[in-house]
Amino acid sequence: MLDSVLGGLAVVLAWPAIGYLFLGVLLGLYLGAVPGLSGLVGMAILIPLTFTMEPGAALAFVLGTFAVTTTSDTIASVLLGIPGTAASQATILDGYPMAVKGQASRAFGAAFTVSAMGGLLGALVLGLSIPLVKPLILSFTQAEFFMLSLLGLTMVGALSGKSLLLGLAAALFGLGLSYVGYAENGALPRYWFGATYLLEGLPLIPVVLGLFAIPELISLAARGSSVSEVPREQASGGIVTGILDAFRNWWLVLRSTAIGAYVGMLPGLGGSIVDWAAYGHAVQSAKNKEEFGKGDVRGVIAPETANNAMKGGAIIPTIAFGIPGSASMAVLMGAFMMHGLTPGPEMLTTRLDVTFSIVWMLAIANVAGALILMLLARRIASLTFIRGNLLVPAIVTFVFMGAWLASSDIGDWVVLLVFGLLGYLMKRGGVPRPPMVLGLVIGPIMENALFITNSVYDGLEWLARPICLIIAALIVLSVLLAARRRRPAPIEDGKADSDAQETHPTMSLIATGFLLMASVLALVPTFSWPSDVGQIPMLTFIPLTGLALLALWQRSRAIGQMRTEGYTRVSIRSEWKDVGLLYLWWLGLLMATLAVGQLIALPVFVALYLLSRGGYPWWTALLYAGGVWAFLYLVFDRMVAVFWYPSLLFQ
Fold this sequence. Notes:
mainly alpha
């Protein structure tokens, strides 16, 4: 065993493998930092470049990219409130509020430190677990996968926002969104409204960017000020404070590592729920929970540790059994096989040195990535103090091009704008958005798992399986604990909660009413569908209707009580005027893209926005627009080779 460990280290340290490892780390940091790009995109681009490389150098290049995307994805989560990748969604809940308080440097210090620790410990778990994991993985059938998905969804719904009812309702609504398009196990399209674009389902990236990025863009543009509401001189908590926070919470780091590594082993689930599982555990195990969702550093430490430790766990079923647990793992397995490495028992016996070289690559890449970002953290955090009108054009470019990567269809931008409006309504109405995203991600997994489970077992006898019973008990316990620590959701105008920084009573009623109306309309057709297509939508929308009704009643009572106590109504007319003006800008961008394509439309949008809304001189607007064009051309055209929209004027 020791010979294999040292042999694996020798493979990594040999030139040119170590050079390619660091080059992969740099590329991975960039891919994780840009919303919409990811380790999957990076590996898909890089693998063809490894054809002529030695196996060790090729693996180092690909694994260096793969390992650190969940380290740099923290940047967008903290600075913009946008998940850089799917595994950084939970980081938003406390990371972005820390940036608003002027504590972005502290958040980065903690996040990058625990990312390195989680990556190292995850690699250690990978090395130690290789002989032990087979019985654990094989003990999970589709019944356990369904229950584990339900646990993740329940925990996120129960812990998000201040209303338990709305949190669970948002989770179920997200599940409902996952049913758009063809069913997992049937030939009948659902909720596609005659649009062929929706037959394959709602694309995840435009939905996530719409729900999280567009509302923050609206707020940033309306204020015109910086992301941080605290002046630079009054900002508290630097990088060193964040590093010390990480070490002070060492026990939480260890527990989150265990969650990340072992949840990561479960094919199909790891990246979807690992950050939420760690965040939920951090909240439920904390003695003082009041600051979670308002900028508690523990809310950054737990998910960032887990999503980096998850990488080590996720590789185990891939190399040990040839079972890729995600699209990224499937691409990685393809890279292994392309260079003559066949996943399976061989990787645990005759090629054990190669397996340990993977462990070393993950460990070194995580430490290197964290150190690089730590050196840049202060400059990155300074972006939170730049005027909003100067940031908005750059963020719009990132967000719209990130959405375009979903399917390179103009429908991606339509979905982005529609869900942006919904996200703003949910934010102002106090309806948590993270559970909705998790429901959308995990819905197909749950539906497929339930279909297979029902095919194998008679009735509900699968619920009697020991692991299913344990998970069911955890589901009930998480809901009871969440209900116990919750007060009825306050909706006073101007008060903050974890997802809606300025919950407005009228918006709250509209958002809750929307959930109720959408649920009822979606429930009606399920009664006429075949059982294999309509069963799980029916099981989703019936409880959603009940939860939305209860939430609407609860909020109506709260507003009535506020009025009797002398509540002064705050007008939202001027606010929606700002939203409408911004949407006119974005609709203009969409129409310009139809006419001349993104390479012209986006730089022109940037220049006009800076001139009219920012009040900047023409030369600043011209330089900024030129930089945007160069970025689009070099990154999206030459590197990513994106399919641009075929404009009407320049075909």
